Amino acid sequence: MSQPMLTADTDPHRLARTLGGRNLVGGELRPSHTGRTFAVFNPATGREIGQAAHSDAGDVDDAVAVAFRAQPAWAATAARKRGALVAECARLLASHVEELGRLVALETGKALRTESRVEASVVADALQFYGGLGSELKGETVPFNPDMLTLTQREPIGVVGVIIPWNAPMMLMALKIAPALVAGNTVVVKSAEEAPLAVLRVCQILNQLLPPGVLNIVSGFGPDCGAPLVAHPQVGKVTFTGSVETGRIVARTAGEKLIPVTLELGGKSPMIVMDDADLEQAVAGAVSGMRFTRQGQSCTAASRIFVHRAIHDEFVTRLKARVDAMKMGDPLDEATDIGTIISRGQLDKVLGYIESGRAIPGAQAHECSRLPDGEALRDGLFVRPVIFTGLDNASRLAREEIFGPVTCVIAFDRYEDAIRMANDSDYGLAATFWTRDLKTALDATRRLNAGFVQVNQNIVVQPGLSYGGVKQSGLGREASLEAMLDHFTHKKTVIFNMN
Ligand code: ADP
Predict the structure, then answer these.
(1) In 200-257, which ranges are E strands?
(2) Within its chain, how far is the Cα of 124 from the centroid?
């Protein structure tokens, strides 16, 4: 293994300043062809921390051309060797966890201890997982005709366009680039405008080991930079995580081009708590499932919690007490549990939902925790977590994805009602069910209409487990071996006629 050229630097401010303003194409950091940049802000202070390249269709053309040229040699590298390189990347990244955790905390406002450092470790874990799967890119022999040898082989698609959001940018990028690369594709990533720095740093680190041009990243805005990437004639596959609205636009363009697309979109994930559930376990599951430590900015956030009426009040009291005990503050402070919302626009949207919820007759907004004190964080985008009670499943707050620290606890009387309400949603990403009765749990797992269903726990996406949604939550699966095979290769059938 070659020695890393970069020295470890865990000061995120310095890193943000020195990295900024460039794309990484062909193994080199380069400015956008116009030289334009845009500012990146620390949402905890409102201050600028650095710049990112403001890329347009010309930069996308350059990056795709480089990836296209690099692809044949990468595809011709033995699959296990590609995997071994990706696994080596995982080991290299593991030595940068602290630095990456701090950088992503600085640009996204996600608390270092509870979220950002964890995300940095998961990135290395995802690369490690896929690094071991090179030899799984197998084909089959088919008993088609005794006089013919018939077989299938897995081939890479070519250049993959990867479009990512800001909420877990490094992790979501890793779950896309790792299987794409191991399968023999080359990649152009378009980062999210709110969080372009940590992902650029990840790609810079990986480019110490990967051949130039295999992994490229450009920063810019959706219509200027994301749209040309999807539309580019040499991009043969797009994998996207983001909003339903943008997912539709991406799918439309991919449909015009007739290329495959993977879409991980929104969620309004239900959590059902039966009256026989272990209450303490379920309350802890609601805290982690709602991702209060990520300000609720998660597609799988347990944003609709259906609780049996017999335990509803006790559940709400305990949930509120737990969230009250969480500390809001500077994301880089080790004592902080809850950081900030990503941007002013998102903050206004979340506050708008809270206001509209308060105006609903019978609704109660239980505000939790405390805003941080101090001059330094005065302009920070902090929102106190809110638990709504007294809303029903038809309300806007229970139907639309808020992407903020707002959950609705809704009482139910009968199991059938809980299942019906849980499935009465435009989304179908994740669901959890809490009970001590395994027979009911089994029935619920069959009936809950979601891609990722858990009983008595609420963990996040894990390398090795297929992850993805039904209905408006998206198309396709990620994170697993099948995801690599189904979404980053095509199957070629080959027949040898022996006659
Ligand atoms: P969010 O509301 O979470 O920012 P978006 O779906 O708007 O979600 O953004 C997710 C990613 O999609 C970002 O990288 C964004 O720049 C990109 N994006 C936005 N609009 C487009 C578009 N028209 N085509 C391709 N990518 C886009």
Answers:
(1) 215-218, 235-241
(2) 15
Our mutation pick for probing the ligand 1 site, out of 197, 229, 246, counting the most ligand atoms within 8 A of Cβ, is: 246
Mutation probe of ligand 1 site: the residue of 163, 194, 294, 350 with most atoms within 8 A of C-beta: 163
Cα 253 from Cα 227, distance rounded (Å): 8
Record the tokens describing residue 42, joined without a space.
């620390």
> What count of other Cβ atoms lies within 10 Å of the Cβ of residue 276?
14
Element (H, E) at 24: strand 23-25
What pLDDT score was predicted for residue 8? 52
* Burial class of 126 by CB neighbour count within 10 A (0 to 12, 13 to 18, 19+): buried
pLDDT value at position 10?
Answer: 87
Is any atom of ligand 1 closer than 6 Å to the C-beta of 243? yes
How much is the pLDDT for 2?
39
Residue 165 Cα to ligand 1 midpoint, Å, equals 7
Specify the pLDDT at position 100. Answer: 98
pTM of the predicted model, to two decimals? 0.97
Ligand 1 nearest-atom number relative to CA 346:
2
In this structure, which residue's CA is closest to atom 3 in ligand 1? 242
103's tokens: 């950088």
- Whether 299 sits among the annotated catalytic residues: the reply is yes
**CA dihedral over 235, 237, 243, 248, signed as positive or negative:** positive
Q: Whose CA is nearest to atom 14 of ligand 1?
A: 192
**Any idea how long the chain is?**
499
Query: What pLDDT does residue 6 have?
Result: 43
pLDDT tens profile 53-90: 999 999 999 999 999 999 999 999 999 999 999 999 99
pLDDT in the model for residue 51: 98
Catalytic annotation, pick one of 115, 193, 264, 478: 264
SS3 per-residue string spanning 406-422 = EEEEEEECCHHHHHHHH
Could you tell me the two tokens for 21? 């303003």
Residues 212 and 22: their CA atoms lie apart, in Å, by 16
| Cα–Cα distance measured from residue 281 to residue 9, given in angstroms and rounded to the nearest whole number | 39
Cα 402 to averaged position of ligand 1 atoms, centre (Å): 16
Tokens 């794409």 belong to: 180
Active site residue 408: no
Ranges of residues in the chain with a pLDDT under 50 are 1-6
Residue 25: phi, psi to the nearest 5? -135, 130
